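Limitations

Structures in this collection are predictions, not experimental determinations, and the ligand pose is part of the prediction. Treat each record accordingly. The example that follows, with PPE as the small molecule, is included so readers can see exactly what is and is not provided: the inputs are given verbatim, and the output is the predicted complex.
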Amino acid sequence: MPITESKLIWMDGELVPWADAKVHVLTHTLHYGNGVFEGIRAYETSSGPAVFRLTPHIKRLFNSAKIFMLDIPYTPDELIEATKEVVRVNDLPSCYIRPIAYLGYGEMGLNPLTSKVSVSIAAWPWGSYLGDDGIEHGVRMMISSWQRHDVNSMPPAAKGTGMYINSQMAKIEAIKSGYDEAILLSPQGYVSECTGENIFVVKNGVIITPPVSAGALEGITQDAVRTIAADLGIEYREAHIVRSDLYTADEAFLSGTAAEIVPIRSVDEREIGEPGPVTKEIQSVFFSAVRGEVDRYKDWNEHVV
Ligand code: PPE
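Predicted complex:
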């Protein structure tokens, strides 16, 4: 689906009209894939638009940059304010927000340390990533023939632009094979995550999700699931799982900013079925929380005005 354009994009401190937000074709990151980004959502609440967990997202952006030795020329507070400004000036009650730090035009060659780091922040309306039907009835998944990165070849904790070639290969394979989404295994054979989401299984009432050491990004939605589960009195564990754990799960679901919380209805043609009670409960609290309807999670709603 084509992107729904908004009005202004923040580029290194300037608010630039959408159509003029361009970079040079010799931009370093375009050639060598060294950039870091975030995916954030703002939701409409009864007291105006609120960015969901903005501060942890900006913190992760800076951690990703630290891993790749990109020196972002702004403070986290400046980018938090800039993000809020982008939501405000575009008059968007709810939207998806994409900050990116990238190496600009100036030098070529593999040494990234000499290139200027630029930052831009765009926001636009973006509906459900895996479809409304997916959110309600679950998605059909396959285990990809592509593996997640080894932790010592590409650091999964960094949300780096180039890392997403791996996700795209898995996504292409899944779509061409008639599935909604792919699950990647680590080089050690453990379940890692999906192309742009964390994964969870529910067994005997316990929620289990793979750890960072299985090659998964530390998801901010995943962390929200952990907190919601704890508050609901549902046991939650971070542990290695293998592919047969998915096949025999009582329930399974995925989480991500773009995807939100989506039930998994089958994996490799093994039926898990319609969303189960644990998935539905987590989903329902999550969707209330993002809209500012849960008092206990009010600090997750970072208002823009
Ligand atoms: N794993 C990966 C690989 C990933 O890209 C994401 C977010 C997550 C887990 C979940 O993290 P969090 O959003 O903090 O809960 N993926 C982003 C990019 C999606 C895209 O298509 O672009 C997102 O959801 O914004």
